[in-house]
UniProtKB/TrEMBL annotation, chain A:
<keyword id="KW-0175">Coiled coil</keyword>
<feature type="region of interest" description="Disordered">
    <location>
        <begin position="527"/>
        <end position="547"/>
    </location>
</feature>
<comment type="function">
    <text>Required for maturation of ribosomal RNAs and formation of the large ribosomal subunit.</text>
</comment>
<feature type="domain" description="BRCT">
    <location>
        <begin position="338"/>
        <end position="428"/>
    </location>
</feature>
<dbReference type="GO" id="GO:0000466">
    <property type="term" value="P:maturation of 5.8S rRNA from tricistronic rRNA transcript (SSU-rRNA, 5.8S rRNA, LSU-rRNA)"/>
</dbReference>
<protein>
    <recommendedName>
        <fullName>Pescadillo homolog</fullName>
    </recommendedName>
</protein>
<dbReference type="Pfam" id="PF06732">
    <property type="entry name" value="Pescadillo_N"/>
</dbReference>
<dbReference type="GO" id="GO:0030687">
    <property type="term" value="C:preribosome, large subunit precursor"/>
</dbReference>
<feature type="coiled-coil region">
    <location>
        <begin position="77"/>
        <end position="109"/>
    </location>
</feature>
TrEMBL record, chain B:
<keyword id="KW-0539">Nucleus</keyword>
<feature type="compositionally biased region" description="Low complexity">
    <location>
        <begin position="14"/>
        <end position="23"/>
    </location>
</feature>
<feature type="compositionally biased region" description="Acidic residues">
    <location>
        <begin position="91"/>
        <end position="104"/>
    </location>
</feature>
<keyword id="KW-0853">WD repeat</keyword>
<keyword id="KW-0690">Ribosome biogenesis</keyword>
<feature type="domain" description="BOP1 N-terminal">
    <location>
        <begin position="156"/>
        <end position="411"/>
    </location>
</feature>
<feature type="compositionally biased region" description="Acidic residues">
    <location>
        <begin position="130"/>
        <end position="141"/>
    </location>
</feature>
<comment type="similarity">
    <text>Belongs to the WD repeat BOP1/ERB1 family.</text>
</comment>
<dbReference type="InterPro" id="IPR012953">
    <property type="entry name" value="BOP1_N_dom"/>
</dbReference>
Amino acid sequence: MGKPKHYRPPGKKKEGNAARYVTRSQAVKLLQVSLPVFRKLCILKGIFPREPKKKVKGNHHTYYHLKDIAFLQHEPLLETFRDLRAYEKKIKKAKAKKNEKRAKQLEVRRPNYKLDRLIRERYPKFVDALRDLDDCLTMVHLFAALPALEREKVEVKRVHNCRRLSHEWLAYISRTHKLRKVFVSVKGIYYQAEVQGQKITWLTPHAMQQVLTDDIDFNVMLTYLEFNETLLAFVNCHLYNSINVRYPPILDPQLEALAADLYALSRWFAAGSRASKLDPQPSSLSGSEEGQGTALKESELRLAQLQHQLPSNEPGALMHLVEDVAGDEEEEDEDTRECKKLFRNMKFFLSREVPRESLLFVIHAFGGTVSWEGEGAPFDENDDGITYQIVDRPTQTHRILSREYVQPQWICDCVNARIILPTEGYLVGRVPPSHLSPFVDNDAVGYVPDYAETIKRLQAAAKNQVLPFPGVGEEDIEDPQSLLAEGVIDRAEANKAAERKQKIMTLEKQYHDELKMELQGVSYSSSTSKQVSVEETEVREESLPDAEQIAQDTANMSKVVMSRKKRRLYEAIEIGKQRKRDEINLLKERKKNNRVSQKS
Amino acid sequence: MATAGKSKATDTDQNQNQKQKQSSKIDEEKKTKKKNQKAIQTQQKLKLKQPTPPEISDSESQSDSVYDGDFSEDDGGSESEDYESLRDSESGESESDASGDEGDVNASDNDALGSDHSHEDQSESSDAHEEVEESDSSEDEVAPRNTVGNVPLVWYQDEDHIGYDIAGKKIKKKEREDKLQSFLASADDSKNWRKINDEYNQEIVELTKEEAKLVHRMLEGKAPHAEFDPYAPYVDWFKWDDAKHPLSNAPEPKRRFIPSKWEHKKVVALRRAIRKGFIKFEKPKEEPRAYLLWGDESDATEKSNHLAYIPAPKPKLPGHEESYNPSLEYIPTQEEINSYQLMYEEDRPKFIPRRYTSLRNVPAYENAVKESFERCLDLYLCPRVRKKRINIDPESLKPKLPSRKDLRPYPTTCYLEYRGHTDAVMSVSVEPSGQWIASGAETVLSRFNCSFTEGTETVFTIVLINPVGFTGSMDGTVRVWEIETGRCLRVWNVDEAVKCVTWNPVRELPILAISVGPDVLILNTGLGNEEEQERVRELLQVKTPASPDDSDNTASIASWHQDDKHGGIRLRHFKTASSVEWHRKGDYLSVVMPADILFFFQYEYSHGSSPICKIHLSLLTTHLHGLPVTSVFHPTRSIFFIATKKNVRVYELVKQKFIKKLETGLREISSISVHPAGDNLIVGSREGKLCWFDMDLSSQPYRTLKCHPKDINNVAFHRSYPLFASCSDDCTAYVFHGMVYSDLNQNPLIVPLEILRGHKSSNGRGVMDCKFHPRQPWLFTAGADSLIKLYCH
């Protein structure tokens, strides 16, 4: 008999959340598309559901803002999708009528659409695109490692395109030394780069056969991939242009065949920068004139490849890869300069069993020179200049004394610590020290693993060094017997100073804490005035044994007066803190147990 | 001659062997062809043999039929022998293999004659050469030595030569073997029958075994070769494409020579379609090209009029535990991993750290694709809200309280303990002068919960049962203590549990009211000077057992008795009296009994003019909507508060009417106390909450404090200091600062000051009662551990 729940008198317009938000099925109806098309549109346009303050239709619906839906409605792509659907029908009809020729013809001429406008619309500035690049990169790298799946419509062409795009990105990062952190996890290898002030983190899977499960809807992923591929292509283009390299890079087909794309790209860079130094004309010309551009491109390819011939013959020529960017040194920030110097003057050689692509990328990014076992390598294993050989096998039988044989983890740890770590722990056949995540702020978490502590000490020591002596300096930190005078003394002093500083800090902190306590009116603080009454001393005597109790009491008492909302919030925070504390305690306990079990 | 013929025979044998060895190299076609040739050769040989016997040669007949008949005649008798000899010859051949070398030489000699010819039409290969060599006796391939030509040999019948050799010399006729010789030869040599005299070339040719077989087959009328199948299935090589006959002999029609009209029409149609644009040509697929999309950042500032984009939160960055080689402490033990199975699905850790000792051991991550997919789903399915991350210091949430030092004095420490009771002290009361306290204790061994139904609603109360009912030995006591020294002044033994003890608020009347079971005892404490004692004694005399002016039902509710044992008055009720409260003037007394209708008594002691104690019973028959728990008089006005389990009801005593209801929102009220000014009220509840009511403000609590985790047993206001306290079963008592300002606009200030501890829990009960000293900031607490404590500042 009563009014319906959301009664609106006739003639009155909808207002508030009911007017502003629609559920998904309403939206689909409004746009007159099918759900898959709607999903595709949403993904491409970057439309996401929003959370209305009041859910008019109920709690179990997803709500879209009406403005978002209107935005979709005016999207030309919507019409394109409708046309595509009609076109599909044509093909289907032709097939049903056994008109194979027409079906084939139609199939070939299937209309295509472009997403560049959408990218511009979603990311009006380049920085915006960079900000959203994390997921894009992770996905493209994942698909680069996937096999082409016929039944899931993952085409070979797309996989190759993903590979190409990911290589281009890696090449740019390593070329400009933007890489900051590397972390080898069970899930894959995490990289973090800093481009135009944006921290971009992405994950590349381990280079193995990926596991595919049945419960994955590849349609969704492929739609995302479609957008991500386009986005990354444009981002790459922009980045390449920013360092004066022509964008679609033309690679040495020989190297490409050897799956050394990354190396080929780095050579393209080298050649490109040189070419642009020689004459900056072609880039401007090709931009203006399309027809002439292709011709120019061909000639340039030849030129580039001719230039490639030269350095590949002479062994030391690879160094120019690293040194070439000297021109824009001034633009670089402190961090980049530091990164660039890390592996300077070092020559690495990668063994067969080591993940070549990732190490090639990392070492280049930090200014080292690398070669690998196999064809097309810049120099071979017997080269005298090699300082480190990256090896991941139980034993190394044939050794050359002038170089050190280390495990790949050493590279990552060096990169994260930004110093050359002593290689002792990483030698062939040993279990390397634990690999720590560079993304964790140990102090904030409250638990510092042992090895982090060691690295910290080494870093402090390295900073204090007046003379950088690369090979020797790090080793004598480990064994103080080989006293190389100044470095050690310096370090000792530094340690002392650090300790002193720490002591002062703790004292200061204590003082502050006491002050705070006093403000709160806790009676036991030591700095209370001299007019302490007899009673109060009594209080203190009694209460001192269980100061903890008193602290708890004060906490309790202030909680009593809080409003319920605040109290709940406070309690929630406390619970969160407690959980963290528990985790840390668990870690400590495990550590203790491990130590005990090791001793016995 | 015979030896020469024999050597020739071995020669051919040898050749045959050689041929067999090489036959694998010769292709099939040649072989068959050769065999056919051989068959012809043997036929010719047979022809040659024919003139050998002299009688036949004598006869002039040359027709084939004649010698055919002869041949059969000749061989008819020896046919069976022939077969035997065939078998023999096999062994003979194998023997003759030994003389292979010689044979070769001979063969080459023979060959020298016909080498010119053989080289002409045969291939240069040695195989071909051998072939030539082998078929030396044939006329087709080897040039005949006799150059006489194709003339009948009859012409030479009478000559002693038979033609000429290549050099032009006459070839001499051989001497004829006579019959005896031939017979001997046939007797000597079993192979003789295979020897045929070649009259033309004047030599003796020996047929090979195979040739003999060929001859046999031909004689039988079969195909000369055994492997030739005359009845092989027919293979039709011709394609009969709708043709009746393999070939047509019809003349080519004209239409084949002129261009097609219909094709022309089609071409015209296509041409027209192309010209008009009906047919579009396939354009080369255009690869999507990247260009400088963000070429000029200047126009990037254009304002879009759609909603703000909320970027998706970035995926969580990995911690130490996700490393392929984490520190040992990050790896859970096996027991911990097993215990994860007991957790709820959503609590279970999604990722269990693992450790690999080297990078090469790390396998592909099994959830890589799945996690990526889930991320995709999150991105497009999860509603996004911009939420402000609460990153506040929890300390900042705590309200700024005035310093506790400024709020002194308040009780902080236990100063005295009053020992003497043997069981839980249920109630404590301070004499208005502040010199004495009275306490009521009960000796309880056990505690029972029982429920009883009354009327329509079920009331769940805790009934404390006196051990008397069970043991009859122990009894409850009421004691009076001197505050300053802790000396127990007096003890009354009332045989039942004492629930409530209250001093008369009038200083001149040291009277104590005690609720004991269904009774309320009014006792003379025996304090004060002589004059006062006199008055008290007079007061506590019951003259008439029941009041005359009241109706009958009141008499049934309560009855007056003189209690001789303790020297006081005993008021007997029909139910357990739970609390007793004096009016501020000391004339009235309120007793609360659990009943759903309030029977509200006022016991009036009119003591002014007449020394006779007069009982005035008035009854408020109002529905309380719940059991009354406790009651209290307004300190200044004639207002009465009564707390039911949920609400506090306020009555005007003079007009005897209901004023208002205070909604506490609590589940079960346990105690109530009024601020000495009378406008504020605190209510303690069994759920540990304390409500502060500002009567002027509203009927809702001004502030609810959740301070105790357990039941609040009692609350108390200080009479002069701005203090109030609550005590609870968790063995603590809270002391609060509760300042009420005279300015109505300013809300009362409530500050928790101290948590008083010291009592011990017994039977799940903690502090049973708390009372403030009337003048000093001291707090008395009565604990279930049979102690009374005095907390001083």
